Amino acid sequence: IYDLASKCSVLLAKDFVHNAFTVILSEETSNSRSLYVEMNQTGITIHPRLKISKMFSFTEENCQVLDKSLEKNTTNSRRETTKIEVSNQKGVSLSCDFQYDLCTVTLAGWHHGISAGLFGTNDNEAGNEWMLPNGSFTDNVQEFTQSWQVNKCNLVPKKEKPCPITGKQTICKVFFEEPHSLLR
Predict the structure, then answer these.
(1) Does the pTM exceed 0.90?
(2) Which of the residues 30, 54, 115, 142 has an alpha carbon 20 to 30 A from that of 165?
(3) Beta-strand relationship, 102-107 and 75-79
(4) In what residue span(s) does the VWFD domain sit (predicted)?
């Protein structure tokens, strides 16, 4: 367990072999954090404090926010009142319980040793958990966390295209995301 004093977005875990998943802890402008998860050409942004999530597709012809479930059968999403679960057929699942502010990432056995980030190397070897992106190792927490920062403290997911905002989304944003809203 370590405390992230940094106000930067950091890579928690990424499959560097098959690119099956990416999990980033994103720093928002309003001093809150969100999780950005990418699986199967689908991006998921989860705001645990706000108890909301947004899913979007990266396909060129289908740029849209997906609320409840995905049309593709390669990524599954389930949303309950206090919990959201996202998984794919490659054995990756992410679950956030808003009641306890707890999010977990679970990887199937065939992801053994092919991921890296602040969550470590996922190979059951305690000696190499603090690996830096360049393959070297450290025992310094600050060096370790800073090495996994994303885009110099300004995360903009590479593949995300700006989608047209609908009237419903604008109203929801005003009610639930704006800093001055009582419903936030």
Answers:
(1) no
(2) 30
(3) unpaired
(4) 1-164
